[in-house]
């Protein structure tokens, strides 16, 4: 029994995490789309506010890439945290649950390992959402133009300079090949995960998959520290000696996710902007991104997208922890029944 219990717990953790990952990522992705779009939008003078209304398909742009990354991340999240907790247990009292600095350290280790898995897919997701916003806005502008063209003409003559013929041949481009590809994809943004990966390779190379790595690591570590510290502390208060009920796990997951948003939103804004396709022309590094955002757009811009992120993280956190606890309790119950039958 002692040999099979750890394997059963490990398996239940992986199953629960994986099932919860795909489910919660898909149903909450429209909030991810709105959050990312708001964070990428620069609130400068004479610039229109972010357009919240798009075609239904646009709200799921980047969902495929994020699902892959989240699946890798959450399938190892709980097992990594459990292993870190075991490693950091007090040697003088190994049966006692960890707390304080040991609990924070376990959350930090978990967040660091998660970030290594998710960084490339976060970049792909951000690029797909950015392209979807561009395509959607362009489509809406074309529709508005067509409506204006269908209206009765006012009789105003076209500008004569627009009708002047040209007699020279365009000179051969001496632009950098990658910049030429960048200009091409400005006219023809990618719309699926495969063409997006191709676009990123042709415009910025492998480096495009690791943009914003440092803020992503800090955000992921911050997420895990806040989430697991809050969750574990509340779990120990509510049910210290027996498995937690699923609805309690859901509620604690939502509450811990709210704490995550409140404390890590500025890092998330910087992370998203450093993953933009235009980062190379706007920001020197993450600190410069913070400085320019604060000076040009104000302090409130560092909390852009907090509302959709709160819905997204709250929902995903509640579903993830609730479903994890449900499957974990189910498999522990099955294991208990097996042990009784063997006895």
From TrEMBL:
The organism of origin for this protein: Kluyveromyces marxianus (strain DMKU3-1042 / BCC 29191 / NBRC 104275)
Region (Disordered): 144-175
Protein name (Swiss-Prot/TrEMBL): Uncharacterized mitochondrial carrier YFR045W
Gene Ontology molecular function: citrate secondary active transmembrane transporter activity
Gene3D superfamilies noted in UniProt: Mitochondrial carrier domain
Compositionally biased intervals (Polar residues): 152-164
Domain of life: Eukaryota
Membrane topology: Multi-pass membrane protein
Residues annotated as signal peptide: none
Family membership: Belongs to the mitochondrial carrier (TC 2.A.29) family.
GO biological process: one example: mitochondrial citrate transmembrane transport
């Amino acid at each position: 029994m002692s040999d099979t219990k750890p394997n059963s717990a490990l398996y239940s953790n992986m199953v629960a995490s994986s099932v919860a990952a795909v489910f919660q990522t898909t149903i909450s992705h429209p909030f991810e789309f709105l959050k990312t779009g708001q964070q990428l939008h620069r609130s400068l003078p004479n610039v229109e506010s972010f357009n919240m209304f798009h075609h239904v398909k646009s709200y799921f742009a980047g969902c495929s890439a994020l699902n892959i990354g989240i699946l890798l991340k959450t399938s190892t999240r709980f097992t990594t945290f459990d292993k870190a907790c075991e490693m950091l247990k007090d040697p003088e009292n190994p049966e006692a649950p960890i707390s304080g600095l040991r609990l924070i350290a376990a959350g930090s280790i978990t967040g660091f390992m998660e970030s290594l898995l998710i960084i490339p897919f976060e970049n792909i997701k951000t690029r797909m959402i950015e392209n979807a916003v561009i395509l959607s806005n362009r489509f809406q502008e074309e529709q508005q133009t067509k409506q204006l063209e269908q209206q009765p003409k006012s009789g105003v003559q076209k500008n004569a300079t627009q009708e002047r013929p040209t007699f020279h041949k365009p000179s051969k481009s001496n632009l950098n090949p990658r910049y030429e590809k960048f200009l091409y994809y400005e006219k023809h943004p990618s719309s699926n995960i495969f063409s997006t990966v191709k676009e990123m390779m042709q415009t910025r190379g492998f480096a495009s998959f690791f943009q914003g790595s440092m803020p992503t690591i800090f955000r992921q570590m911050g997420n895990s520290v806040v989430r697991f510290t809050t969750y574990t502390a509340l779990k120990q208060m509510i049910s210290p000696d027996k498995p937690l009920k699923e609805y309690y796990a859901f509620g604690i997951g939502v509450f811990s996710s709210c704490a995550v948003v409140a404390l890590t939103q500025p890092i998330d804004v910087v992370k998203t902007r450093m993953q933009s396709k235009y980062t190379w022309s706007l920001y020197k590094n993450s600190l410069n991104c913070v400085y320019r955002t604060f000076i040009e757009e104000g302090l409130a811009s560092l909390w852009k997208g907090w509302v959709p992120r709160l819905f997204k993280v709250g929902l995903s956190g509640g579903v993830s922890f609730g479903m994890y606890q449900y499957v974990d309790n189910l498999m522990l119950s099955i294991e208990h029944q097996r042990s009784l039958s063997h006895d």
